[in-house]
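**User:** Hello, beginner here. Are you able to go through the protein record under this note? It all follows right here:
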Amino acid sequence: MSKRCELQKEYYQNHGNYKGNGKYSDSYVKWLEDTIIEIRNENKIIEEKQTMIDPPSGWKYGFPKPIPQDRLKDYKVWLVEQGYPQSEIDRYGENFLCRYWEK
C-alpha cells in the first residue's frame, strides 16, 4: 500500500470521507499538508541526530557507521551484528573503546 493510500485510510478512519465537491475536501488537504510537514520534520530530526561509532580498526569492516540510539547500551552486540569480529572485541578486553560523534 502506498504512503498516500495509508494516509487516506488514516484520515477516513479518524474523520470520515476525505472527498468533497472536488477531488478532495479542503479539510483533508489541510490535514494532509500538516501531516506531511510533520513527517518531514520528524525525519529531519532523526537525520540530524545520528550517532556515529568507529571501533578500533573499524575501517576494515565498513566503519564508521551510524548506530541506532536504542543500541548504544549493547553496542558490542550491535557491532558483531554489523560484521565487526568478536575476536577484535575480545582482544582488547576491558580496554575496548570506540570513538563516537554526532553527525
